[in-house]
Amino acid sequence: MPILPSGLQLALSCDALFDHGGNWFDCPEGYFWYWAPDPDIMGPPPFDPDTEILQVAQPAPVPETREEVKRYIRVMEVEDGLY
Question: In 3-state terms, what secondary structure has residue 72?
Fold first, then answer.
């Protein structure tokens, strides 16, 4: 990823999406499973970069527009090669 003029380096992550290989709980038609930070443990973002982000699997409707897809793309800061 490029480094911004401010020196900040960002990266896009698709880690919210996962392939369960068909061995997972049933999901309603038109939905998919994704990982989300556990709101009961983590609270709202942004999260402390020195803390492990605990996640829970949640179902959501399959996105149909770019606007809907943005919810599942995470932006991470890169510092000293670490995300």
Answer: helix
What is the model's pLDDT at position 21? 67
Of 17, 22, 13, whose CA–CA distance to 33 is shortest? 17
In this prediction, the residues of the chain whose per-residue pLDDT falls under 70 are: 1, 14, 17-24
Residue 36, exposed/middle/buried by CB under 10 A (0-12, 13-18, 19+)? middle
Domain that residue 26 falls in: 16-65
Query: Is residue 75 included in any domain, yes or no?
Result: no
Number of domains in the chain: 1
Task: Give the SS3 label for residue 39.
Answer: helix
- Pairwise CA distance, residues 54 & 14, whole Å: 16
> Is 21 part of a structural domain of the chain?
yes
